[in-house]
Amino acid sequence: MSELLFYKNVVPLNSETHRDLHLKAVKKPLAFAKEANLIPALVDEFEFAMDDLPIAFLPGKEQPSAVFVAGLEPGSSVFITEDGLWNGKYAPAYLRRYPFIIGDVEGGESVLCVDDSYEGLSKTDGVRFFSKDGKPEESVTNALALAQNYRAAADRTDEFAKKLNTLKLLRDIKLDAKMPDGSEKSVHGLQVLDEEAFAALPAKALGELHKAGFLKAIYSHLFSLRSVPKLISGAEPAGK
To answer: What's the predicted TM-score (pTM) here?
Structure first.
């Protein structure tokens, strides 16, 4: 998933151009994700999401990418309601970070960016990004912290996926599901941990995974596959 999902026009956020910009509430806050059946996942959130969301991997040119499986077919998510809300216990950080993201400026430091096509941006309504004298408001400092934490966790996730790939611990699968009406749906092109290969790892390789703190993520990933039936019956509402 090398291309940014959901983001359409990312621009650096600055106190001059965006002095009067506000972030307002929208009627359907997560409607932008209603057609995403795969959502980028962070290794740090595996244990929090495993009861709700199956975790898998998408093969890539350089390394696999961790994803949450949110639906059984492209263009459909069982976790986004008609009201644009998350119908589950845990909402992925990728969704909570939007419309912000950390961007790299050539020859300079990383900066907070925003998708200026987002409908929640306004010049009159909502919470200001900057004070009238150009100082960042709390909304910006909070967004920056979330985006920075996401970037750090994404780097750890890349390291995790690369390690699994190097150790040849991933196998190709097809998620098959029989629907209540008798029809069948399948999600193709995914990978999961090869449990036989994992069990056969030499002690040295197992020790490396333990030292890197990846064993919990591996077991959380395996446990999450028990959540596949929720893609058929629908997500369980938060708080239940």
So the answer is: 0.90
